[in-house]
Every structure is written in C-alpha cells, then in structure tokens.
Amino acid sequence: MNKPLILIGGGGHCKSVIDAAESAGYSILGVLDMPEEVGKEVLSTTIIGTDDDIPSYVDKAEFVITVGFIKNPATRIKLYNRVKEVGGKLATIIASTAYVSKYATIGEGTVVMHHAFVNAGAQVGNNVILNTFANIEHDAVKGGQCHISTGTMINGECKVGCNCFIGSQSVLANGITISDDIIVGAGSLVRKSIKEKGIYSGNPAILKIKAK
User: Fold this and answer.
1) Which helix (H) or strand (E) covers residue 74, if one does?
2) Exposure winner among 90, 109, 125, 191, fewest CB in 10 A?
3) Whole-angstrom distance, CA of residue 57 vs CA of residue 108
C-alpha cells in the first residue's frame, strides 16, 4: 500500500495534483504552504504546516511538489532538493486516466495528469509535470524539472533538456533536441533543434527573448 502524501504548495496546480493522486488511489495527509495559509483548505485537503515542517513527515508520508512552473522552475527545484536533503521520498503519481507504457520510465516526483500519454521507450526525468492531454511519443527523452503543458505533443525521439517549459498545444517535430532552460510559448511549432537559452514561440518557433 502507498504511503499517504504530503503536497508542497497550495495553489492551483495543487488542486490538479490532488485530483490526479486521489484517482490513483493515494490518500493525502495534508498540504504545506506559506504560514499565513495554514488552517485553510485546498479542495478538501487542509494546509497543515509550512516548508519548515518537511522533516517532520519524512517517516510518515511521501512528498509531491505542487508548486507550478510557467516562467521559472527555481522554487520547484529548491523544494525538491529540500525533500532529498532531509531523506524524504518523492512519489511518482500517474492519474487513473493517463497511459504510461510498461516500456517507458518515469522519474521520482513526476506527476502524469489525466489523459496524458507516454509511449514505449520514452524516458521522463525527476520532478516533471506532464499535464493534461500531454503526449510523449516513443523514445522521447525529457530531462528533470520540466513542465510539459496541456495538450502538448512531443514527437518520437525528441530530446528535451532540464528545466524546460513547453506551453500548451505546442508541437515538437520528430527527432529534434531542445537544450536546458528553454521556454516554448503556447501553440508553437518547433521544427528545428534549439540550443540558445531563451523564450521561443510561433509557427515555426523562433527566439523572442534571449536569456540574460
């Protein structure tokens, strides 16, 4: 039987994770968030403490980082590292309506949301958000700390680096590579590999803002 979960971060993404986790049969012990939020509820789950309380739950629960990531993964990475430093275990959540091939691999702390699809040979790193209706095709590789947003299509043999955000309804053409720390805006078509850090968007996707 799975241990109960402690969710870290009580915003909108937390609601989606609660639903996915409950559908997968997990019970949720509580949420950790900012001090001023303690005692409030996220859906039917109570905020029972703050990030400082992580060590108290290491032996009682597994953890999921439920802070979202659109512009920057720094907070998610910091919290992930904090759990690891104190000996905590991060759960891997696969929603009941998601499909993950038995020939795919999913890293710790990753959440596969409702109706997402991960095909044979795909490799997904640690602490990744595979959001609703995301499609990860055969032999694609996703680095850690990424957010693959709603309805995104990552085609076969693509390689996406660490700390990347791929916006909703974007498409990555077969076999391309995206380096670390890249943001792709919603609705983009990525036809060529991307190496330079920055924000890309459009059809075809082009560099809009260089990373500083």
Assistant:
1) helix 74-85
2) 191
3) 17
Per-residue model confidence as pLDDT tens digits over 136-177:
999 999 999 999 999 999 999 999 999 999 999 999 999 999
- pLDDT classification of 21: cutoffs 50, 70, 90: very high
Q: Which of 91, 126, 144 is the last residue of a domain?
A: 91
Residues 56 and 126 grouped into a single domain: no
Half-sphere exposure of 88 (CA within 13 A, CB side): 30
Angle at CA of residue 64, ends 60 and 68, nearest 5°: 150
Question: Which tokens is 70 given?
Answer: 């659109």
CA 94 to each of CA 26, 58, 80, 100, 141: distance values in angstroms, whole numbers, following the listed order: 10, 21, 18, 8, 18
Q: What would the pLDDT profile of 59-111 be if each residue is shown by its tens digit?
A: 999 999 999 987 789 999 999 999 999 999 999 999 999 999 999 999 999 99
Here the CATH number for the domain that contains residue 34 is 3.40.50.20
The torsion angles phi and psi of 22, rounded to 5 degrees, stand at: -65, -35
* Residue 47: partners with Cβ closer than 8 Å, 6 or more residues away: 10, 30, 31, 32, 33, 37, 38, 39, 40, 41
In one letter, which amino acid is 34?
A: M
